[in-house]
Specification:
heterodimer, A: alpha/beta, Alpha-Beta Plaits, 3 domains, five-stranded parallel sheet, 11 helices, B: alpha/beta, Rossmann fold, nine-stranded mixed sheet, 6 helices, about 30% strand, globular, binds flavin-adenine dinucleotide, binds adenosine monophosphate
Chain lengths: ~400, ~260
């Protein structure tokens, strides 16, 4: 808990001003903490009279039985998710730092050559469960399978992609194992203390928080796609493939997939695209939106949209970027006729290069842009498209 | 059908901003609101009740101020509201939160359906729904965008996936988390507002829900926030200038370089 030394406290209010959680206030000249406190330590760092300190139950627990870094290998519709390869990239680093093996866990109907792909991407071992009950993703079957394997082999870390699937069943596994889980991490590192330091955005990306799970194992994280770097695949890498079976009763699911409907024309998964060209209300009509689509095609990119564009019916919901849509972290994000509302910006601001075109010089989108153009997109876009086509031919 | 909806009070996302000078979150004028996804969870509960009969109870774990959102829930058509509030809950991470909510829900009796929002906009973890389902021994489906029917204790739903959607059946009792596409929440009715005004919201403490103190609050939380800091600032932006043709030329360069060079 947060200890307040009221002798030392001078009621200056620095703690109150700096607390991200509204958890500390000066009342009658002294700091008082409330139940919103997360022990993040910001107030302790800012206190100039050393009136604040944190006391935790640091009593040691024996965690030595838990060894190895695991990556859940997401496999759906005959495809290994790109984020799995990225996790094997960061997993390689973490495993080297801890001096342990990196393993992938594959749950599927038929594995085919997927284990070899995972080894080429960095896995030392691949645990494979092949079962007809795992052809379709259900939380019961996938959750029980991963939980049972974790109990059997005791990994110290389990990583999974922050995808629809990962965000759905990984919390189940963490709860069943009574351990901590940090969602949507953007940075992972092994600290000097040997624990996994997990960093993630909070409050819509307005602050970053580093989170640890020091007294429980496994340490579990879901990680955003397109943040970590995959290894260059090496087909000659050797690894061990371990076939596992899970008790049939544990693969019985209380929910059943009746049908899978893939979005039309969504060959490219927006969250995994290197280039995203997005349009907003500034495109005025469906015909305007075709300009965005044309530019995206020329750049081998995917098409994104604001909620305003989706609500206008110019493009389908799967293309929506933002708080209520997808998060993208592309190499290039081109925002056309987008004002830059915070709910949209949350979903795209971690892109590497952001280009914005808007006729309003004060549009908020320019605050997050690397390159900005003030002007009418109906004049600019056709010109740029023309030039890119010339360069192609 | 007896339905419980979990709702959380969060700072209004559009108001939370980083002060560029001090690099702290400026909360000036930040309102507390019902987590936006939870409005859709509530609405879906009320719609199911209207169609199939039953009751809807909203539950929130939070400080005493959270009574405000429960009051608002009553005005939007739910029947009953419970606040779960105790200093002992302070600092709970998602594991401790799901324990506390599960204890409270069990206390209210048998439940056919629990509905949560997909995620809460303060932490965006999306972990409480699935974790709560485990604690209650229920199956669950996350990111539900449509409930297509209920028959013989089996519910048909559509779940959003990254590449489209899945149609599923799930055995009741169950837990669902919902996305915004599922419905358009209604506004409070006059009758609802009157009912809310007269409604005295009960508050459960740790003892009331027979909680094991070791599983509550900070002590029951395996994850510790050890540091918070502002995100790295974006680089300086360049505004492209010149004639239309010059701008288009520069843009074509930037686009080709960033798209293929990186
Ligand atoms: C709870 C909540 C969740 C939300 N979630 C999302 C979300 O996930 N994603 C999302 O995108 N939004 C979301 N929104 C909506 C968001 O607040 C904005 O309303 C939306 O992003 C605005 O879209 P826009 O930029 O296309 O439209 P506008 O704000 O109308 O902006 C249009 C822009 O185009 C410019 N323009 C117009 N004509 C031209 C032209 N000829 N040439 C150049 N520029 C032109 C204008 O100057 C203007 O800046 C959410 C809102 C709420 C309340
Ligand atoms: N303290 C709480 N009280 C009631 N419901 C909650 C609480 N925290 C989370 N929830 C529910 O769980 C959902 C997901 O929250 P989260 O896992 O925090 O993103 C929310 O949309 C709510 O329905």
């Amino acid at each position: 808990m947060l200890i307040i030394d009221s002798e030392a406290c001078i009621g200056c209010g620095l703690c109150e001003d700096n607390c991200p959680f509204d958890a500390i206030h000066v009342e009658d000249g002294k700091a008082v903490v409330n139940e919103l406190c997360t022990l993040c330590g910001t107030c302790v760092d800012h206190c100039e009279v050393e009136a604040l300190s944190i006391e935790r139950d640091e009593e040691g627990v024996d965690l030595s039985a838990w060894k190895g870094i695991w990556v859940y290998a997401e496999y759906r519709n005959d495809k290994v998710a790109q984020v799995t390869k990225e996790l094997l990239g960061i997993g390689t680093e973490l495993a080297a730092q801890r001096g342990v093996a990196l393993s992938a866990v594959l749950l599927c109907g038929k594995a085919g050559d997927v284990p070899q792909q995972l080894i080429a991407a960095g896995a030392d071992k691949v645990y494979v469960v092949e079962d007809s009950a795992l052809v379709n993703f259900t939380d019961d079957a996938y959750g029980n399978a991963l939980e049972d394997l974790a109990r059997k082999y005791k990994p110290e870390v389990i990583l999974a992609g922050a995808t629809a699937i990962g965000r759905s069943f990984i919390p189940r596994v963490a709860t069943s194992l009574s351990t901590g889980l940090t969602a949507d991490c953007t940075n992972l590192a092994i600290g000097d203390d040997g624990h996994l330091h997990q960093t993630r955005p909070a409050f819509g990306g307005n602050i970053m928080a580093t989170i640890m799970c020091p007294k429980h194992r496994p340490q579990m994280s879901t990680v955003r796609p397109m943040v970590m770097k995959a290894n260059t695949p090496d087909a000659s890498r050797k690894g061990e493939v371990i076939a596992e079976t899970i008790a049939p009763a544990r693969l019985k699911s209380r929910s059943r997939v009746v049908r899978t409907v893939l979005s039309e024309g969504e060959q490219l998964n927006l969250s995994e695209a290197d280039v995203v060209v997005s349009g907003g209300r500034g495109l005025d009509n469906p015909a305007g939106f075709r300009l965005v689509e044309e530019l995206a095609t020329l750049l081998d990119g995917a098409v994104g949209a604001t909620r305003a564009a989706v609500d206008s019916g110019w493009i389908g919901y799967p293309h929506q970027v933002g708080q209520t849509g997808k998060t993208v972290a592309s190499k290039l994000y081109v925002a056309c006729g987008i004002s830059g509302a915070i709910q949209h910006v949350i979903g795209m601001k971690s892109s590497e290069t952001i280009v914005a075109i808007n006729r309003d010089p004060k549009a908020a989108i320019f605050d997050v842009a690397d390159y900005g153009v003030v002007g009418d997109l109906f004049e600019i876009l056709p010109r740029v498209i023309e030039k890119l086509k010339e360069r192609r031919s | 059908m007896r339905i419980v909806v979990c709702i959380k009070q969060v700072p209004d996302a559009k108001d939370v901003r980083l002060d560029p000078v001090t690099n702290t979150l400026s909360r000036e004028g930040v309102k507390s609101v019902i987590n936006p996804y939870d409005r859709h969870a509530m609405e879906e509960g009320v719609r199911l009740k209207e169609q199939y009969g039953g009751t809807v109870t909203v539950v929130s774990m939070g400080p005493p101020q959270a009574k405000a959102i429960l009051q608002e829930a009553i005005s939007c058509g739910v029947d009953d509201a419970i606040l779960v509030s105790d200093r002992a809950f302070a600092g709970a991470d998602t594991l401790a939160t799901t324990y506390t909510l599960a204890q409270a829900i069990k206390k209210t009796g048998d439940v056919d359906l629990v509905i949560c929002g997909k995620q809460a906009t303060d932490g965006d973890t999306a972990q409480v729904g699935p974790g709560l389902a485990v604690r209650l021994g229920m199956p669950y489906v996350t990111c539900v965008k449509k409930i297509t029917g209920v028959k013989d204790k089996v519910m048909s739903v559509e779940r959003m996936m990254d590449d489209g959607y899945d149609e599923l059946e799930i055995d009741l009792p169950a837990l669902l988390t919902v996305v915004k596409e599922i419905n358009v929440p209604r506004f409070p009715s006059i009758r609802g507002l009157r009912k809310a005004k007269a409604f005295d919201i009960p508050s459960y403490t740790a003892t009331d829900i027979d909680a094991d103190p070791d599983q509550l609050g900070l002590g029951g939380s395996p994850t510790w926030v050890v540091k918070v800091f502002p995100p790295e600032p974006k680089g300086v932006r360049t505004m492209l200038e010149g004639s239309l043709d010059e701008i288009a030329e520069q843009l074509a360069d930037i686009l080709s370089d960033s798209a293929h060079g990186a």
